[in-house]
Amino acid sequence: AAPSYTLPTTTFKTRRALPRNLLPADYHAASPQHAHWPLVLMLVLTQMSVGTFVVEQLLGRVLAASGQGTIEPTRPVHLVAAFALGMLGMGASLFHLGRPWFAFRAVIGLLTSWLSREIVCFGAFAGLASLYAALPWISVGNMEISSGANDLLGWGVVATGMAGVLCSVMVYDSTRRPLWHWSRTGPRFLLTGALLGIPTSLLIAFVAAAFTESLTVQQIMRDYGRNLCGVLALVATVKLLSEASIFTHLLSRRLTPLKRTAVLATGELSRWTSHRFLCGVMGGVAIPGFLFVAPRLDPQQPLSTQFVAAAVVVSLLISFVGEVFERYLFFSAVIAPKMPGTPAA
Question: How is the chain split into domains, by residue range?
Fold first, then answer.
């Protein structure tokens, strides 16, 4: 971090020159930080919710343009599930507050605080998402909502949700911790939305198909499910490689904050790290990858409905656990900047 960020504002006048290489007293020691479990769940669930809404919007446009299927039969359930995930995430964040009944005060710093902006954006997201999720289930008199207005509302949900995720990125970037720099946190948060939003969307479609005579799991996989599995495997691979890049800092001769993070991840937190990557590979790469390539390996014998549904359920559960582990490491393996000569609290 920049000295201007960690040096005290009090000015001590002296004729003696201070060394330029001042370091905190415990600079060469690295210990796990507090995990902040409510924030872990809040971040994962809100990003999962936003990702599920994004998949609904993009998939609907792609299928409409190509004429190869539709998501309309599954859309009502899809929107309710995506909204519920977002509400669970926001509810989890309340357990991080010392006095939740004063949560409304968080918006006071809207002009200067990324936390206030995050709260406002997710508040707008919750309001728009509740209306968007309710529309397929209700009718207003004898009037029908035009497709244009419905599309505008859907993109409003996506826009406010993405704005909330980006504000989350900046909340952590503003702490000046190298591990939380926006160039690392941004891709991590956005890819979590895609990594969990895709299997969630598939599972919701399968659940809807179980109660819809005109829709089957095999039809969903043929129309768009198989391609979604391919995209999921690609997204998971990119995310895991991005996270693994932290280990390149172990080769550095200097004991930088990122090297200390890598030392923690491969030392005291190695069990969490190995579990995270195991879950990521199995849930995000191996299972979706198999569902993507299996029809090409034996076109004459398609996978059974029960097997495909079970595979998607397992993929989603393992991927979710993996993202929780990743977010645990996000908090536990971070190295905070401290004033010169100041040990850890």
Answer: 34-332
